[in-house]
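User: My collaborator sent over this chain with a note saying "see what the structure looks like." That's all I know about it. Can you take a look?
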Amino acid sequence: MNIDDVQKKRAIIALAVMVPAVILCLWTGKRIFYSLSPSLGYKLFWLTPVKSGQEIQHGDYVLFPAPKVYSQLAGINLPDSAKAMKRVKCKHGQTLTLQGRYFFCD
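Assistant: Without extra context I'll predict from the sequence alone. Here is the result:
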């Protein structure tokens, strides 16, 4: 077996590994979210879209565009495309209130 044959086999193996890896990264890239918030415990989330007619329930996690105030709270300049995630704690009909830096239901 000469050097050219070894290089061809290595190239084929590299392609066989890299192509599925790139496809997996492209497919999962918009489905994975890592929370940088201590309120969520720095978790990794797999995103699933809300289906038509499906209601957001108590305990669900929701992803939304990060408000501008998050940049001030974090002490960094977040891009306009930044996302935030929070867990739904209030049930339907409850009132969410802010007291200091903490939120409460009723």
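A starting point for your reply to your collaborator: The first strand starts at residue 32 and ends at 34.
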